[in-house]
């Protein structure tokens, strides 16, 4: 995710006890039992997606696996959502009426994050390959077992309603959710619950720390020439891209301190002896609200035009992705928090804690005390949100009442977007964290299906508080299409080797067993000679 894995926005100090305060009863107890009965299924889904190790826009094995599974469970699948080959929705309806509840989670990995899970030091499975260095392999495991537990209860009790499961495609590129919104995926949805991996079990409401952003690529066009024999006959597109980069650095001092911006030259030409006729520079521009993002984009456009004039080239731009700031629903978050307190953190055993501490020590984590044993306190959002990372769940949160449930499937203090964040993601730590999150998810869906006042209050809060003074402003260009070519070459290069490591649950009880990894493996790694 484009933010720290362990950030729990709107949450204060560690305070609430880890043990359950109000054990669930009635319908909630039934769905909790349904989640527990599917512990094996959640482990298999979690481990399977980890083994695919797919990155943004290339989540094809993930799409095929999840849609086939949900189709067998009676869900109706719609594919190629919003022009995304890995975009889909799975819908199941009980009865003629009832609320429509959507459950979402991201599915993409991180470049160069291949890591053997269960090994507390750097040990790639496939050198240079992508991997789940944030833990996005786990969220759909949580969503699906929660939905299936709720589905069984709905059938037994004849509770009307619709469950919709959907994926966060290419979240690391901010490539999917705004396009889902534009395609109308949420037009009939009453409430959305999003799940994201963390090291805590938590939720929040309001505006957390973080930014909205736009991902934009500028393409400079020039004229090729022999770089030694006749360079004066060429017009270097690379010079245009570099001039824009230099111009942005000059302007950066005079932008608001809240902004964050980063860029790469994604195409610098073909070879040194040919004046580049085409070059591309790719920016992430982050700011705190819609107006500030638009102003920042206009500034970038101005600098691009100036760079083109300086270098006698032409320039065009393309929006590759976007993310609105996040804006979460208070009544839904309060309902979820009550369920979080009822479920509590997993009961970590000595092996879990020893492994977590070994990882923390080996990677120089900011936390060295192992896994949390107390829930984070639930509190109001910051009065003045600070600049931080972005997540395109923001676009959904401005469209329909939305919350995020964070679940404790990873280890505190890790760097994020890094191979280290993949270490725990098929271990008992992840499996227990997914189960805890799924219980909270299922219980919160029951609340939304059985408490009309809760849903009505969530909609009133969304209408009269969340969007009273600011409406959603789509940042995508009207005619843009998703950049589904991104990561295609990279995935094609590594997939044959990665496929040798796909999880086979028919032969192995867990992915660690398949890889021959002993649990827990401790220590600092094999000795190296100098």
From TrEMBL:
Alphabetical UniProt keywords: Signal
Lineage: Bacteria, Pseudomonadati, Pseudomonadota, Alphaproteobacteria, Sphingomonadales
Highest taxon of the lineage: Bacteria
GO BP field: folic acid catabolic process
Pfam families in the cross-refs: M20_dimer
Residue span(s) of domain Peptidase M20 dimerisation: 212-305
Record-given protein name: Aminobenzoyl-glutamate utilization protein B
GO molecular function ontology, one term from the record: dipeptidase activity
């Amino acid at each position: 995710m484009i933010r720290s894995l362990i950030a729990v926005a709107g949450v204060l100090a560690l305070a609430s006890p880890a043990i359950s305060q109000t054990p669930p009863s009635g319908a909630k107890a039934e769905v909790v039992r349904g989640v527990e009965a599917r512990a094996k299924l959640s482990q298999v889904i979690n481990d399977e997606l980890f083994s695919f190790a797919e990155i943004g826009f290339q989540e094809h094995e993930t799409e095929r696996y999840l849609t086939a599974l949900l189709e067998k469970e009676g869900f109706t699948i719609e594919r190629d959502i919003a022009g995304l080959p890995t975009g889909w929705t799975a819908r199941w309806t009980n009865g003629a009426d009832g609320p429509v509840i959507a459950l979402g989670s991201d599915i993409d990995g991180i470049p160069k994050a291949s890591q053997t899970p269960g090994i507390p030091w750097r040990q790639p499975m496939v050198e240079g390959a992508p991997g789940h260095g944030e833990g996005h392999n786990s969220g759909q495991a949580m969503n699906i077992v929660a939905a299936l537990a709720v589905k069984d209860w709905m059938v037994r009790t004849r509770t009307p309603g619709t469950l919709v499961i959907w994926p966060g495609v290419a979240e690391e590129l901010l490539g999917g959710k705004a396009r889902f919104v534009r395609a109308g995926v949420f037009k009939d949805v009453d409430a959305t619950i999003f799940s994201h991996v963390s090291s805590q079990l938590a939720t929040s409401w309001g505006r957390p720390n973080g930014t909205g952003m736009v991902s934009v690529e500028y393409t400079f066009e020039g004229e090729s020439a022999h770089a030694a024999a006749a360079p004066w006959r060429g017009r270097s597109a690379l010079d245009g891209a570099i001039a824009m980069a230099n111009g942005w650095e000059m302007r950066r001092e005079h932008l608001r301190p809240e902004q964050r911006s980063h860029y790469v030259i994604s195409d610098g030409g073909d070879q040194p002896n040919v004046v580049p006729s085409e070059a591309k520079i790719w920016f992430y521009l982050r700011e705190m609200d819609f107006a500030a993002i638009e102003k920042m984009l206009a500034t970038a456009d101005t600098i691009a035009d100036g760079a083109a004039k300086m270098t006698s080239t032409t320039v065009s731009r393309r929006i590759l992705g976007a993310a609105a700031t996040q804006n979460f629903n208070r009544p839904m978050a309060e309902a979820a928090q009550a369920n979080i307190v009822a479920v509590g953190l997993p009961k970590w055993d000595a092996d879990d804690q020893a492994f977590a501490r070994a990882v923390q020590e080996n990677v120089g984590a900011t936390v060295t005390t192992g896994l949390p044993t107390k829930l984070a306190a639930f509190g109001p959002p910051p009065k003045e949100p600070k600049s931080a990372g972005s997540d395109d769940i923001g676009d959904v949160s401005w469209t329909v009442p939305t919350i995020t449930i964070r679940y404790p499937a990873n280890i505190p203090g890790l760097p994020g977007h890094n191979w280290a964040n993949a270490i725990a993601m098929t271990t008992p730590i992840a499996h227990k964290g997914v189960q805890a999150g799924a219980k909270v998810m299922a219980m919160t869906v029951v609340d939304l299906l059985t408490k009309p006042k809760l849903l009505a209050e969530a909609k009133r809060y969304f209408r009269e508080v969340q969007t009273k003074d600011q409406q959603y402003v789509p940042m995508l260009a009207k005619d843009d299409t998703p950049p589904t070519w991104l990561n295609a070459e990279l995935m094609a290069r590594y997939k044959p080797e990665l496929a040798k490591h796909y999880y086979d649950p028919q032969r192995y009880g867990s992915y660690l067993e398949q890889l021959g990894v002993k649990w827990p493996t401790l220590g600092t790694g094999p000795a190296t000679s100098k």
